[in-house]
Amino acid sequence: MTTLALQRAEAPASANAGDQPFRTAAGGLIDRNRPRDFTFDGRRLTGCHGDTLASALLANGVRLVGRSFKYHRPRGILSAGSEEPNALVELRSGARREPNTRATMAELYEGLEATSQNRWPSLAVDALSVNALLSPVFAAGFYYKTFMWPAGFWEKLYEPMIRRAAGLGRAADAPDPDTYDHAHAHCDVLVIGGGPAGLSAALAAGRSGARVVLVDEDFATGGRLLAERREIGGTSGSEWAARAVAELESLPEVRILSRTTLFGVYDHGAYGAVERVSDHLAVPPPHAPRQRLWRIVARRAVLAAGAIERPHVFGGNDRPGVMLAGAVRTYLNRYGVMPGRRLAVFTSSDDGWRTAADILATGGGLAAVIDTRTTVPPHLRRMAEAAGARVVAGGYVAGTKGHLGLSAIQVVDGDNSTETIACDGLAMANGWNPVVHLDSHLSRRPVWDAAIHAFVPGTLPSGMQAAGAAAGRFTLAECLETGARAGAEAAADCGFTASAEAAPPTDPESVDHTPLWRVPKPKGKAFVDFQNDVAASDVELAHREGFRAVELLKRYTTLGMATDQGKTSNLAGLSIMAELTGKDIPSVGTTVFRPPFTPVAIGAFAGHHRGKEFRATRHVPSHAWAEENGAVFVETGLWLRPAYFPRAGETDWLDTVVREVETVRARVGICDVTTLGKIDIQGRDALAFIERVCANPFATLPVGKARYAVLLREDGFILDDGTIARMGETHYVMTASTANAARVMQHLEFCRQWLWPELDVQLASVSEQWAQYAVAGPRARDTLRRIVDPGFDLSNEAFPFLACADVTVGGIPARLFRISFSGELAYELAVPAAYGDAAWRAIMQAGLPYGITAYGSEALSVMRIEKGHAAGAEINGQTTARDLGLGGMLAKKKDYIGRLMKERPALVDPDRPILVGFRPVDPSARLRAGAHFLSLDAAPSLEADEGVMTSVAYSPSLKSWIGIGLIWRGPERHGERVRAYDPVRGAEIEVEICSPVFVDPKEEKLRV
Fold first, then answer.
1. CA neighbor of 301 nearest in space, from 503, 83, 567, 494
2. Using only C-alpha atoms, what is the Rg of the chain?
3. For the segment 255-292, what is each residue's pLDDT rounded down to a tens digit?
């Protein structure tokens, strides 16, 4: 243990003593000339630029900042970093209200509004603090044992009461007015943490020319160097950090991301980080995001995330005024705040004596130093006692006193004598835990290091190494040395010439400690997990009831399950379980940690993908022409698609759709069908793959022909339908419906990668690479002959129905398919998407002599219903191929996905609803999709329901409304009449069951 100068500094009255009574007279890294006004629970207070909300509250003497989750006990500020479990507040108001913000991480800005949470009616007087008196009822696992009787009370009383009490803060009621951004970065070396080890690593890697990204969650880079009274190379630690940052900023390949928390480690060198771009401002500047989510891909990473101090477990250790010793030094040295008038130190390490020295050096009052170790160097005892402090060796703090804040501690000395020492602040120093959370994110468990009484990183993720306190190297000299070495090695692994320079000399220090996991006889409730109100007694209860495995302990007591993931509590809980089971801590084991390291706003994950931008709106290639010509658009899947093209004199949408259908049936029309999914399938085993995923046969499909395709799910129901065209011997193009395109691609990739990885086949989604237009109607061939380059014979003999071929249009490679969704002579022309607009305009120009019209999805739907084609309303995940009249086309001599399951008794039951058509008995009656079918004399009931009308349309060809739908034994009942009952819209129409094909049942038109 080194000699520390324990001397009381003279403390002249602060100029701001009236405004900030606990602000020190001088010192700190804040700007005292830039005051910041803010409010807490409506009370106007003042802080300084460079403060956090926590430091500003302490400077103003505010110690009570919240209430605990379960017992509503008074809680104060425990730490000074992201590990804070107690000081969770609501920031801002209105639409920007943000709950559960850690006051220790909230950068103070002018006009900041903060509100305490989890209390009613006020923070000082909380009605639910009565829960503390009921703590025997709310012990670990109480929710498994209580609220069981009477059974009827659960829904009427217990559940509503629990739901009202649950939660800590209030989310905003209005839409978030701010924006969130996503960004990507690639680097050679990623350095996680901006303390001495992180800065040394970044310097070593950056000087080699490597691309370096340094991520630091603080708004000021330097880590513990900003909080300690340390020297590096004859200068203060904070000055050394400032020089290091300045050099890094001068290096062209180095990027420093401050205010950025790395929250997740993922496969293949990918990392997730969230940057708080504008959280330190009341309102983000114009065009600036509130937060930015980073996806960083790094070849190598240096984990220099530091360590988290451990609290002691003793009675009343959650009382406001009880803090971690390192946090006390942070508030003293960085923020110029004295956390109390008269402070005590409870230590099991040399680190606690450093806190005592800093208290005296900044003019604070030191009431006592209680060291759990029996031996205290005489010179430290003498100097502490000379400063008026009581020194207790071999003792411990058993309990605390105070109403809404600490007023005294109960100390047991080495002779088991108890005394009460008055103080309003207590600093706990029980050693440090390396931050092992991030290296555990890929299911790697930390390992126990007996030398430091802590878990350290075990097998690190590929490409990552730990340095400094994160690796269990706690001295400043070790942090500088291991950081520089790790940075140089990471850069060298990336091919750069790097060397670790000799670390500059530091002032001497000692990190000896002998932790006391919990005091022998606590006076009062001794908390292990502050945020979830888990006490030592809860761990004992879990042990008695058999929940001794660490995963069971965690879930039974909720230890480590709060938003802080047990950063200050896990090891204490494990140590108590080890004591109770008679094992050592590594034998008890530890849980692993999952992303995110700290809470991340859902808005940051969503980025711009919300509201209208939840998914990118895709415009079809003809969108510009459609806009110019007054099209009305509809969202179809991810696409914005023309629904119809109204003209002057047309009174409503139906007039327009009727005109478009009649024009297609009589002359020619063009429709943009780019929205259909297009999947390119190539490879030696492409045919074998298609045979397995499609229910109908394709082995006989020749090159230059297309065929209708049906895909089943594993359970035998239809996944989707489309077409498959064979463009070459091993080259196929599959189309899928607009709505199911992504699902079909996902299904095919699953089959390729997991079911049959041995097949030589490759898939590529080319939906956006090709613009595709349907040209339909009696004059479709004439129109296309004016577009397709000479030399391609489009006659019926040379290019019959279901033919396909590569063609050129104005010298541009294109594909032509003779397929029809309308029932007319029709073609689909595909051109590279870059030429989509030009091709559309050229087709419109070519079709002018034949009276061409553009038609949208509404007219397309009318024509497909007239032809009885099933679409999304029929292929809804509940229908089989047999239900849709497609059973006859399924293969009988091959195996394919869904073949066996489609034969389940319920799926081949003769009484299953089958697709048929419906005509209203009264031709003027309007049919409605969604109507249910009842027999003419049946009363409406579920038992009487015979089926549903899935799609309806007004047929210009028949001059009446028609529909298709599913009804029991449909094909056997042609000519029978039933009622289409629609209680939602108050309609009941008598309809006749008929064939679903209303137009051209012999398919003569499409084969001409």
1. 494
2. 37
3. 999 999 999 999 999 999 999 999 999 999 999 999 99
